[in-house]
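Why do we bother with a discrete structure alphabet at all? Because it lets us treat a fold like text: something you can write down, compare, and reason about line by line. To make this less abstract, here is a complete entry for Methyl-accepting chemotaxis sensory transducer. Read it the way you would read a sentence in a foreign language you are learning: slowly, and without expecting to understand everything at once.
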Amino acid sequence: MIHNSVVSRQGAAADSFIQHISQGSYAFSCWDDSIDAFPVPVLLCDHTLTISHANEAFLSISGFQNETMKGMHFKNLPVSLLSGESVWDAALSGRITSGIAEVVFPTGAGFYEVRALPTVPEGQSVPVMLVFFIKPDNPPDFPSYDTIRRSLSESCEILAEMDGTILSISSGSSIPIPADVLLNNNILKWDALSEHPAILGIHNHPGTEIRFIHENTVLEVAYLITVRVCEVVLLKRSVLFLTITELISPVNDKADTPDNSALSSALEQLASAISAGNFSYRMEIESCPEDLKPGIQAVNTMMEQVQLQFQALTDGISQMNSGWIPLSISAPEEGPFTGIIQDLNGALDSLQLMIATVESFTMSVMEGNLTVKGETSGLSGYYQAMIAGMNQMLVRLNTPLLEMKRVAKAFAACEFSSRMDEKIAYPGDFASMKESMDSIGIWCSAVVGEIDRVSSRYASGDFTAHMSSKLEVTGDFTTIRSSLDNIGVQVSESITVLRNAADVLTEESDGIKREIAAVSGQAETLACYTSAVSERAVSVQDEVRQMVMSADTAMQALCGMNEKVQEVAQTSARTHEMSSQGVVLATQSREGIDAISDAAGSVDSGISRIHEELISIEKIIKVVTDIANQTNLLAINAAIEAAHAGSYGRGFAVVASEVKHLAVQSKESTTSISQTLAALHDAFREVRDKVSQVQGEIESRSHAICEMVHLFEKMAGEVEVIATMSRETGILSHEQESRIRDLNERARRIGDLMVETARDAGSSAEACASSCRSIEQISGHIEAVARYAEEIHGGISGFTV
């Protein structure tokens, strides 16, 4: 390392500052005004050597802008190390380094002493890097290209670029270099090099070396020219390094010079093989002089060691290029690459340790364990800084994730008022994730509050409530909103239908009551008529009995008719009077039968009207049943939607249960009414059959009474004949006796008919009474229907639709 003999003023200030930080007398925590005003140019880099700050002194000498520097990587600065250690060495080793470098700033190029100080700020775990650019007080003390050329080898003569451009050449050299070479400043313009085939095919492979002898026939001098391709770390590129040595023996003294042309050819082939990367080439020993065989054998042994070590290095590098890191490079312990292989094995050990640490770290992270820490023991430098950086990264990732987990858990418990902690730092995308989580809470709070408002209105019976159209909802909340609004609409429509049906049912019940009252009145009238018929039939029966008794008396009087004609005349007069009364009674009986027939017809028409009304009631009951079924289905859907809504739909679930219960009651009521109506249908059919039978019997009895009237009229005529011909009864007494017997027989038949008429009238009265009782039962059922309608109407009156 090259240092100034006298420490510069900036160097002394930098040394003092670095010493204070190293000893802990200066509490370095972050970039502050004191560093910004420090007279020495300073850069602050993170553990990845990304520049975060530059002080005023650096911006002044470099010409960079502060905005340009932030985020720039140190490798993008044009810094060429000439001697000492670089900033990368400080990052890898974790110790203070110093080196001389040429830096090309926008304001100009210059030489600086670059010192790097890795340190960990107070309160942090990730290291940072302070880089000082110290301007020397005496710049000429820094090395030049000539110094670099002389430091490579004592015999160094020419340093040139790969294209032949001369960078440095020994001054005062006695070797004559052609003038055109010096004029063009290109060593490859020399014919001795440009005409050599090996030089023309030279490649940019560090370590390639070509040796040959150039004979100058004019000066009779021979030169040994050695051309090597060298990788110069200070210049960060390959250059040509030429050594030209004058041979002692003159060109013309060939007699004493051994013929080494074969050896020279073998060496040239060996050099070409090595230049091509072929280390399997071996020199032939048999054709060489004995004094050269040990040297050639040593060269072959060296080539064998080089081949084995180079093959081991090639295999290791191939594995690394394929993504596999070998445990070590297995190669012979002796050889030119032994030091490189040992250093590479040490680097592989550190890399394997780092890979194992990263794999363990990655597996823990993949398992969801973000609290794991990567183990940094056994690592150093950049590897240790990288693991420490990953640990810090996990800390910064885990804290927001834990906070998000807490808020998500609160959201899962429906606590949408929970928010992300503002005191926690949210880097990068975590800031937008925090805003998203807070937005979710705010939006869900608004939606749940609106659902609670609408559900409360539903619970209070107001189904006109709807979710606000100003509240924008998406996803599943759109379905919930539509379902909740549809529940209100459908329940409102169902309640309206129920209310209308209850009103219609009430009106129909009132109409049925009126019709039943009319039918009841007509049945009572029919009962009265039937009772009158029965009473008249009894009167007729009594009259017939009297007529039979009179006939018997007439029969008894026939024996003394001759002696008692006067009595017969009187008896005939009484008989004529009784027959006249019989005609009157028979006529009245026929009129009563006709009245009963008309009443039975009225009852039949009334029963027909009642039957039509019952059919209307059945239609209404069917409508109510359909409404109850729809209400029950709607209540089931409402209960399902309430179950989907969870705890917020419990209130509405109670309402749905009550609506379902009311629908079941309505359905049971309608079922009972239907059964009652069916019984009424059966009763009315029975009444109609009875009335039809009564009408048939009345018609039959009407014919019988008509015949009886005719008989009575005929009997009156006969009695009148008897009265006028009473004086002649003596002769016709036998005929009269037979006629009286016939009249007696007919009277008995009339008595029997009247008994049957009285019995039928009693049955008709009983049928009317049964009809009255059935009508009373229908009236009771209709009143129950009316009460149910009033209950339905009262139940839905509390709802607002």
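What the structure line is telling us, in plain words: The chain has a mean pLDDT of 76. The two ends are 96 Å apart (CA to CA).
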